[in-house]
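Dear colleague,

Thank you for sharing your sequence with our group. We've completed the structure prediction you requested, and as agreed, I am returning the results in plain text so they can be pasted directly into your records. Please verify that the sequence below matches your submission; if there's any discrepancy, let me know and we will rerun it promptly.
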Amino acid sequence: MNSVVYFNGPVQNGDFTFAERPGKAAGIRLAEALNALLGLDAVPHLWNTVTLAGDLRHHRAATRSTVGRQQREQEALVAKYAPGPTPRGGLRTDADHQVACLALEMTRGLLADGTLTVRDLPVRLCTRCGYMAGAGTAGDCRSCGHGGGRVARRPLLVFDRTAHGPVLGRDDVHAAGARPPSHLFTIAHHAPQLLVLSRTRDRGVDLAPLGLKGMVLDPRAGLHVAVLAAAREFGAERPVMTVTENAAANVAAHGAPFRRHGPMRLRYALHGKIPYETAGSDRLYEVHRAQAVRNLFIDWYLPLCAARERAGISAVRIPALLKLLRRAHLARSATPPGDLLTDLRHRVAAGDMRWVTDVRSLACALADREDTSGPMGPTRGAP
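Please find the predicted structure tokens below.
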């Protein structure tokens, strides 16, 4: 098995394309850049399709009687990459058969050891479509818009954190040499003690085999299983999920029981947002005579910098980062120095991103990229 392999946190299959909103591809590009530096093959791009918004899009589509939900999701995913091809590593979603099989296997094990339980709890159900909301939720149904609801008891899959300990700790973050994200630990600590892990959705990991008919696994848990399923397919014992701090805060507590399976242990590689409006300015590259590295800067270097500057890259930092990349690009050798490349790969595997602002290390990374990738390599044509 490979040890550390990076996978993107599944991207929500919303109404956008990468050409319009490249920020959605930051985690994908970061994972690809880090895996390439480790000398690994391309991994699949992971997508979150178990969403209420996806249910609503399908319900409201004029073609819903002729185009199934799965086909609609697949067509939307392929369109994200237009006009280019889909990635070499392929596409995977959190509703794939492999994910469902692994999720049920893990859930059965977690029920057997008492980490998860099935309990009868009061919930609010829409009287028209049966959509489930929290017991204290008021207002129209988020699924069908109906105003009528009733409180009923039904069996739910739950995770009681009482005996679990912290749901997010320092060892869950893959970032050697970086300051621990204490604010995220605080957010996770204040998650409810009893977390419901079953939801009413049209799509997802069907929990009927566990006696929860009409329910699917909470997508925040399903995202983690999707990464583990891809990691098992790839042969990775230590999958690392690239994710923004906000996303980690939203999914960590619900995903806590699903970060380990057999020899696999999932960790998070946090990254910040990238100011693409500033980075895409034509004037920026004219002033710094850096047209030759424009695509390299936007598609490759900025995602790497975002893993170092996890709170987000400030727009005022863009010119300095561009100048640093240009210096390293001019200083790169035809082939990467062996000793420096070995050290760089150790740092990449450990999640130590301090090297991205060191000209010598960056020049080595650029030499390795050009030496190993070629015109059809893993960093060419990526979203």
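Summary note from our side: DSSP finds 13 helices and 14 strands in the chain.

Kind regards,
the structure core
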